[in-house]
Specification:
Blueprint: E1 6-7, E2 10-11, E3 16-21, E4 28-31, E5 36-39, H1 43-48, E6 58-63, H2 74-90, E7 94-100, H3 106-116, E8 123-126, H4 139-150, E9 160-164, E10 167-170, E11 175-176, E12 185-186, E13 194-197, E14 200-203, E15 223-227, H5 235-242, E16 247-252, H6 260-271, E17 275-280, H7 297-303, E18 306-312, H8 313-325, H9 330-337
Parallel strand pairs: 3-6, 3-7, 7-8, 8-9, 15-16, 16-17, 17-18
Antiparallel strand pairs: 1-2, 4-5, 9-10, 10-13, 11-12, 13-14
């Protein structure tokens, strides 16, 4: 393309968007021989399923393989984030980027990307709830919507977002609420950031702030996640400490309550130098030092646990894991986990 923006005698003012393909249900078709869906479609094939897109946006496709999202590790997610960073750094004319991946871990993965990416340009994560050969496959529409959203300067400075079923959600607040429904994703505490209709983004609000990790992230240490349920004691917490966990995230009832025996095990962990974080197993709401009975949130705070605000257990674990890998001390971890002002 010439500096004047002319290509073959025609003016091309379309925005450019990098689209990184990693696999997931959006890339899958059902194989009767294996009895289920498996990833087979590459980026070019997925883009071909979105007719008319080339008339509106110049897509820069980047294939990173076809990996089910349930197979992702922190190392894999950090590798994807690096690929996004490299694409945006080397592509000064890019309006934004899209990450196409499986939805099993899309809310957790998007939060990891949000923690480590600092470009003001939009990064939109999308996928599909139905395989590419399913009746009413949602992948093509989600892919088109995500690319159009990433090309829209209105999303500038909003960090990483998830776009599914026409809704745009902030990475820190989005939750998968249903195992199979097309409209499986929501933001229980805030609602969506915006919606996209007919390829046009309608921004409803802007993010109040973001949790960020600044600086290099080293090897990610082991961090355990313990979900409270009726009849469980602190045995699993003791076992995690013995196994070498650097931190433990406890998903408690309600606003941060457990039985006293679980708090006792967590206190033993903290006495051994292990960081303990308190989150809620509820999909909405925040943990708080509201109850002072043994095992109540106030007693966890007094014992030294870090409260995770509105973050779900998996997202709190992601923040602690990467925070430790970046060398944060307890104060730094507490600041990272706190809800943005």
């Amino acid at each position: 393309m010439s500096p004047s923006g002319l290509q073959d005698g025609r003016r091309t003012d379309r925005p450019r968007v990098a689209v990184l393909f990693t696999g997931g249900t959006i890339s899958m078709t059902v194989d009767p021989a294996v009895g289920g869906a498996r990833p087979v479609l590459d980026g070019a094939e997925l883009l071909a399923s979105a007719p008319g897109l080339a008339d509106r946006v110049d897509v820069v496709p980047i294939d990173l393989g076809r990996t089910p999202a349930s197979h992702f590790t922190f190392a894999a997610l950090l590798g994807i984030a690096k690929s996004v960073r490299d694409a945006l750094t080397s592509g000064a004319t890019l309006a934004g980027a899209v990450i196409v991946q499986g939805t099993d871990t899309i809310d957790e993965a998007a939060f990891v990307y949000d923690l480590v990416l600092d470009d003001v340009r939009p990064v939109v994560v999308t996928g599909a709830m139905r395989s590419a050969d399913a009746l009413g496959a949602d992948g093509p529409a989600n892919l088109c919507d995500a690319i159009m959203a990433a090309a829209d300067p209105a999303l500038s400075g909003q960090g990483v977002v998830v776009l599914m079923s026409g809704e745009v959600h902030a990475a820190d607040g989005v939750v998968k609420l249903h195992a199979t429904a097309v409209d499986a994703f929501g933001s229980p505490d805030t609602g969506p950031l915006g919606r996209i209709d007919g390829g046009r983004l309608h921004l409803l609000r802007r993010r109040a702030g973001r949790r960020r990790i600044v600086g290099p992230v080293g090897p990610v240490p082991p961090v355990a996640l313990f979900v409270v349920a009726v009849g469980l004691d602190g045995t699993a917490i003791d076992a995690a400490v013995t196994a070498g966990a650097r931190a433990i995230v406890v998903e408690a009832y309600g606003s941060g309550n457990t039985g006293p025996e679980i708090l006792a095990a967590a206190t033993r962990a903290m006495d051994a130098g292990v960081t303990v974080v308190l989150a809620s197993r509820a999909v909405g709401g925040a943990v708080a030092p509201a109850y002072a009975f043994p095992g109540g949130g106030a007693t966890w705070a007094r014992a030294g646990a870090i409260l995770a605000g509105h973050l779900t257990g998996p997202k709190a674990r992601a923040a602690v894991s990467l925070g430790l890998a970046a060398g944060l001390d307890r104060a730094g971890l507490a600041a990272l986990l706190a809800d943005p002002a």
